[in-house]
Amino acid sequence: MEGLHLEALTIARGGVPLLALDAAVAPGEVLSVMGPSGVGKSTLLAAIMGTLASGFSMTGRVWLDGRDITDLAPEARRVGILYQEELLFPHLSVGGNLAFGLPRLPGGRAARRARVAAALAEIGLEGFAGRDPATLSGGQKARVALMRMLLAEPRALLLDEPFSRLDAQLRAQVREMVFARAKARALPVLLVTHDMADAEAAGGRVVDLG
Ligand SMILES: Nc1ncnc2c1ncn2[C@@H]1O[C@H](COP(=O)(O)OP(=O)(O)OP(=O)(O)O)[C@@H](O)[C@H]1O
Q: Where does the ABC transporter domain lie (predicted)?
């Protein structure tokens, strides 16, 4: 099956059941994950990334494009994630941040520079390669973080409240850009959010862990 499939997933903390979920997200589709604080939304994303903290355990399988990725190392899963904070590297330029996401390319530096320039154009930030990330607005940082993640060519996208720090107008803009870029790449998206407006903009499919 194409897309992301969480098959009979259960997560426990210290042996105590935290959550159970069975869900499929098709390529280009967004599934919103909602529920009260502490219910395990971020933990669910960690389980899919392969980065569960010690003390947590899981059963079930995670499938991505028909491949069982449950036991793969995090970096081999091809799952991208965006957090509430953009987490751009402060000591690298915007272009350096983007190049960091790039897999090794034939063609060396020139090819990398061209790829970064094309990526900046895709998010409306032509000419920003040399900029210090500290000089960017919140919305610009969010776009760079999105593109850095996409350049690693993930096959699925996890979003952990990436819009919650932005004001209402910017939030809608960044949200549309994230969904549009994910759709253009036919990525299945799991969106953790507390905001019903996010879930509605995402297409309205919601799983409530509460
Ligand atoms: N590294 C950790 N070690 C131990 N317990 C943790 C760890 N991270 C989270 N927890 C606990 O696991 C439970 C689930 O946390 P999680 O962050 O997944 O919830 P959440 O639904 O994402 O909450 P929020 O909406 O507040 O972000 C909580 O009780 C939390 O305190």
A: 4-209
Is residue 10 lining ligand 1, measured as CB closer than 6 Å?
no
Q: 85-126: per-residue pLDDT in tens?
A: 878 999 999 999 999 878 777 778 888 899 999 999 999 999
Atom 16 in ligand 1: which residue has the minimum CA distance?
A: 40
Rg (CA), the chain: 17
Residue 23 lies in a domain: yes
d(CA 27, CA 19): 24
Atom of ligand 1 nearest to the CA of 194: 25
The model carries a pTM of 0.92
Closest C-alpha to ligand 1, atom 7: 53
Q: Which mutation among 18, 41, 198 tests ligand 1's pocket best, with the greatest number of atoms within 8 A of CB? A: 41
Ligand 1 neighbourhood includes 3 CB (under 6 angstroms) = no
The CATH number of residue 158's host domain is 3.40.50.300
Looking at residue 87, its pLDDT comes to 83
Number of domains in the chain: 1
Is 187 contained in some domain?
A: yes
- Does 18 map to a domain? yes
Residue 184 belongs to domain spanning: 4-78+154-208
pLDDT at 73 over 80: yes
- Decide if 61 is inside a domain: yes
Interface ipTM above 0.85: yes
Residues near 175 by beta carbon (within 8 Å), at least 6 away in sequence: 163, 198, 201, 202
